[in-house]
Design a protein that fits this description.
Layout lengths: L8 E4 L14 E4 L2 E4 L1 H4 L2 E2 L4 E3 L2 H7 L11 H12 L1 E3 L2 H15 L15 H14 L3 E2 L5 E4 L5 H8 L4 H14 L3 H10 L6 E4 L10 E4 L5 H20 L8
Antiparallel strand pairs: 1-3, 2-3, 4-8, 5-6, 7-8, 9-10
Helix pairs in contact: 4-5, 4-8, 6-7
Length: about 250
C-alpha cells in the first residue's frame, strides 16, 4: 500500500486570504501565507498527485483559440492537457495554479452582465478563495473520489468562513456552479480549467442539494462519481457546519 505524504505545506499567494479560513481544521492563514495540513484538512486523502499545466501556457496557447466544426472547445482543452499536463505532488503548485485560474474566471469585468446585483467584488474574492482550495479535491478516472476537503461543500464552507446566511450562501453557490456560466462563460471555464487537468463538474442540480464541485479528468466515470458522493456527503457536511461561529456566543 502506498504511503501518502501528509506533511503540512505553506504557500504564498498573490493576495491575502481571509483569516477566517483558519476556522477550518488544517488551515492557517497569515496574510498571503496559507498553510495546509493534509492530515487535519481532508476528510479523505488518498492521492497526493494532481495534474496541472502552467497557467502562462494556458494564457498564451489556449485561451485565444476558437472552436471549429471539427474541433470543439472540449477537444482543444483535452489536447492541451495531453500535450502540457504534468503530474505534481506539490500542493503549493496546485494552489497557485488554481488561484490564477479563478482570478481569471471570477474577474470583476463580468459583474455587470451577471444579472445578480447583490453579488459584489467582495463576493468574487470569496469565490476565488474557496475555489482555489476546492482544486485540492480529486476524482480518479474510474469515478472514485480520492480527495475530499471542506470546500467540496461550497455553501457549508462559506457559511463557516464568511458567515453567510443560507440564502446568500446559496446564491453564491449558483454563481460558482451555474448562473455565472452562460455559454460564453462556460467556454472560458473549459479552457481555464485545462490548467488543473480537467473540467469542472458538479454532483448537484441545484443549491439545496449541496453536492459540490471538482475538477475531474476527461473520461472519468460520472456514474461512479455520483454514487460515491451520495454515500458520504451528509455526514461530512455536518462536520463542516460544526465549525460555524455562534452569533450569540
Amino acid at each position: 500500500m502506498t504511503t501518502i505524504d501528509t506533511t503540512a505545506i505553506t504557500v504564498e499567494l498573490p493576495e491575502a486570504f481571509d483569516p477566517r479560513w483558519s476556522r477550518l481544521p488544517g488551515l492557517q492563514v497569515e496574510g498571503r501565507r496559507l498553510t495546509v495540513d493534509p492530515a487535519a484538512y481532508f476528510f479523505r486523502f488518498e492521492s497526493n498527485t494532481w495534474l496541472v499545466a502552467d497557467w502562462e501556457l494556458v494564457e498564451s496557447r489556449l485561451l485565444g483559440l476558437d472552436e471549429t466544426t471539427e474541433s470543439t472547445v472540449e477537444q482543444l482543452a483535452l489536447d492541451f492537457i495531453k500535450d502540457h499536463g504534468e503530474s505534481t505532488s506539490d500542493i503549493a503548485r496546485v494552489l497557485t495554479t488554481a488561484y490564477e485560474v479563478y482570478s481569471y474566471l471570477f474577474r470583476e469585468e463580468h459583474l455587470a452582465g451577471l444579472g445578480l446585483p447583490q453579488i459584489t467584488t467582495d463576493h468574487l474574492r470569496m469565490l476565488r478563495e474557496a475555489a482555489t482550495l476546492m482544486a485540492l479535491n480529486k476524482v480518479e478516472l474510474d469515478g472514485h473520489i480520492s480527495n475530499v476537503g471542506p470546500c467540496w461543500f461550497f455553501p457549508a464552507a462559506t457559511s463557516v468562513v464568511f458567515e453567510l446566511d443560507d440564502e446568500m450562501g446559496g446564491t453564491l453557490d449558483e454563481v460558482y456552479h451555474g448562473g455565472w456560466f452562460n455559454e460564453h462563460r462556460r467556454i472560458e471555464s473549459i479552457k481555464a480549467h485545462a490548467a488543473l487537468g480537467g473540467r469542472l463538474v458538479h454532483g448537484c442540480q441545484s443549491v439545496p442539494d449541496q453536492s459540490g464541485g471538482v475538477v475531474a479528468p476527461y473520461g472519468a466515470s460520472m456514474a461512479a462519481f455520483r454514487g460515491d458522493l451520495a454515500a458520504f456527503k451528509a455526514g461530512w457536511i455536518e462536520q463542516v457546519h460544526a465549525h460555524r461561529v455562534d452569533p450569540a456566543a
